[in-house]
Amino acid sequence: MLGRYLGPSGLGVINLVERIISLAIIIVLFGSSQYLIKEVAIAKGKKQWQKIYNILHSSLLYLFIGSLICALCLLIGSEYIATGLFDENKMQIPLCIASLSVVFQVVNRIYSSALNGFDKIWQSSFFNELITTFLVLCIISCFVFFQLDLTIVNVSIFYLFSRLIAMLSSWFVWKKVFPFRFNSSRIKFKSLFKSSFPFLLVSATGFVGANIDALMVGILSTSTQVGLYSVCVRVALVSTILLQIVNTTLAPRFAAFYYEEKYSELNSLIKKISIGLVITSVGPLLIFILMGEGILEFWGDGFRSAYWILVTLALGQMFQVLGNTSGLMLVMCGYEKIQAKLSFSSILLNLSINYFLISNYGALGAAIATSIVFFLENILKVYFAKRFTGIVTLPFLK
């Protein structure tokens, strides 16, 4: 909907701002999201309520302070980021508005991760991913219905308001789910973040690997190219819907089964979902090949030219879906350092290929680079998951 009313350029600005803010949040969280999921799931299985309380409250204290500092830095540096780095004057005001949401998003991520670890899967997914999109869509629909002007500034305000509501909602639900109250025994900053650091490498490299292409398109090309690329990324991500559900649902179960040495249950669980992942990754690719131009027309005639970008990204997402469960197993079964090294190496490769291809082919070059890196990275994920856990996540391999 935003693409239809803001056009490729306006949508490109909004997407660049969102990616900058998301990168800042990853840095502030310092891997705490995945760390909380793992530790809360294990502690819940052992009924260690005091430990859950201590981890959550210590994380909230340290990360709240960090998010305030990050928001201030973004506000101060907004002019340089907009005009000096991306050469896009229209970006500064939306970036300033979005900077204010850093605190809301960090706190929301903490509570959502705790809910996930506490086996409240749908609540976690709703507050972490869906509620903001739903609220923004409702507000934009009202603007369209009453024929009010949509600009990149008021869209940024919509996102800010929605993220405040998401934070308050996740806090309220956690209070209902976890009624226990203790005298807080604060975990030392050094101890908490030493434990979180391997997860930071995984989450940060995962985020950068997924977003560096769009950021580099913004730096090396134009906001219009970013708009085209961002729409294709979102459409191609349709093939990852089941993967996102599986990852959110299985992450705490992987950790619990592995540390309780329930290997047969873990292996059975993997086999049940692997065939579905194959179908949901190959199917969308075929649909985009046959109907891609018609699908892109929904965003307006200006997006039809992005057909080959969409097909190329869909191919890359197929590789990502087929191998991502192996990466999740490495993280949740205690081999997060291996996953981190794989992800970091992929980023370096992605940066190198992106620089050459984007400079010559724009957004299409970014799509080609992303697909190449996804293919190589996920082959290695499957190999290392089999080597260290003994479980193969692909149904056509033994």
Summarize, please.
The chain is built from 14 helices and no strands.
Question: Would you mind describing this structure in some detail?
Answer:
This protein has 398 residues and is mostly helical. The protein folds into 2 domains: 1-187, no CATH class; 195-392, no CATH class. The protein has 14 helices and no strands. It has helices at residues 2-29, 32-45, 49-85, 92-99, 101-117, 121-145, 152-177, 189-220, 223-236, 241-259, 263-296, 307-332, 336-361, 363-389. α8 (189-220) packs parallel to α13 (336-361). The mean pLDDT is 85.
> Radius of gyration in whole Å, from Cα?
21 Å
Mean pLDDT score = 85
Number of domains: 2
Uncertain segments of ≥5 residues (pLDDT<50)?
none
Structural class: mainly alpha
Number of strands: 0
Order of helices and strands: HHHHHHHHHHHHHH
Characterize the overall form: globular
The biggest beta sheet is recorded as:
none
Number of helices: 14
Beta-strand portion reads: under 5%
> Alpha-carbon distance between the termini?
44 Å
Helix content, binned percent: over 70%
